[in-house]
C-alpha cells in the first residue's frame, strides 16, 4: 500500500495550519521536557523495581515509575488530595506546556480547549475505594471516589486549573488515547472549533491491579533480575512490555494566531490518520493492515510522500506480536525504503505509558527535530530477523529530522499515526 494511493485528505488547500507552541512532560526518565529529552538522548532507562506497593507474589516486580514527584508541593495539599494520580500528572504536564507556550488563556478563554486522553483512568482511586468498602463498609467510601476515578476528570481539572472554557473532553482508546487527543485537537483547530487546544494524556496504572491484570494476560516482561534491560522492542529476546506512568501535553495553536502573538513555534502537526482493525480485542490485524492504513491516511493528510519522512517513532511495545506486525505495516507503506529509514521505540527507556504514550512520544519527536538527533532503541542485543528495520540500536544518531511520524496502537484495534514537520516548515 503506497501512501499516494490514499486520497482522503481532509479540508481544502486553505485549511488552517496547526502548530505546537509549548510542551510538557513527566515520566519515568524525567519530570520536565528538558529532563526527559536529556535522558532519551543519552539512552537512559527509567525502569526500576516498583516502590509504590509491595510486590511479593507478583510475577512482575518492576515498572517505569515517576520519580521525585510530590503532588502536594506541586499542586497544593488540598487540591492534590482530590485528584487521582493520573490527573495530578496531567495537570503538572499541562502547567509546563502552558508556561512554555507563553499562553495567556484568560485573554480569550472560550477559544481555548482541552483534550486529555487516558487508557485506564483513576486506577489508584478505584483500588483504594474498593478496599475501603470491603474493610470499612459502604458508608466509608469517599464522596470523591466517583469523580476522582472518571477517565474524563483529567480534562476537566485541567480546564479548572487553567481557566480554558472551550471544547473539552477525554479520548479513551487504550494505548492510542493521547495520540487520538492530538489528532482530534488538530482537526478541531483546522475546522474553527477552537484556536488553541491543550492536548495530550495522562496515565497512572502502576498499581496492584494494573500489574497483576496485565500479568494475567501474559503481556508484561518478567525480567525481574535486570529491569532496566527488560524493555527491548524489536530485539529477539523481548518477553513483554514494561508498564510506565506519566503524562504529556502539547499546546496546539492556529498558526496565524501563534505568529501574531510572537509565540515560540516548536513544530507543526501536518498529518493525522486513524483506523481500526476490526479484528481482535488485543491482537493487531494480520499483516499490520490497520496500522498501515493509518500511516497512509496520515501521509495523505500531511500531503507528503513516504520518501519525505526522516524518522518514525514506533509504537514498539516490546511484545513478540506487536513488533512483527508493526514491521509488516511499515513495509506496506514505505516499501523498499522501510529497511533503511530510522525507526526507534523510546518505550525501551520509558516503558509503556499506555494512554499517555502517544503524547509523550510526540514530545520526544519534536525534541528530536529540534536537536537533530534520532533517539535510540536501547537493549538491542539480538536482532530479530522478522523485524529487519533500522531501529537506531542502542545509541542516538545525529541527523536532520524535518518530517517525522509517531505511531500508536491500542487494544480494541485502534490505530493512530501523527505526522509532524519541524519549526522551519512551520514558520514558512
Give structural notes.
This protein is an alpha/beta fold. The chain has 2 domains: 18-260, 3-Layer(aba) Sandwich (Peroxisomal Thiolase, Chain A, domain 1), CATH 3.40.47.10; 272-426, 3-Layer(aba) Sandwich (Peroxisomal Thiolase, Chain A, domain 1). Helix content is 34%, strand content 17%. The protein is built from 15 helices and 14 strands. It has a 10-stranded mixed β-sheet, with helices on both faces.
Compute the number of helices: 15
Class of the largest domain, according to the CATH hierarchy? Alpha Beta
Distance between the termini: 31 Å
Q: What structural class do the secondary elements suggest? A: alpha/beta
The name of the CATH superfamily of the largest domain reads: Thiolase/Chalcone synthase
Q: Output the CATH topology of the largest domain.
A: Peroxisomal Thiolase, Chain A, domain 1
**If classified by CATH, what would the architecture of the largest domain be?**
3-Layer(aba) Sandwich
- Report the C-alpha radius of gyration, rounded: 20 Å
Tally the beta strands: 14
Q: Based on CA inertia axes, which overall geometry fits?
A: globular
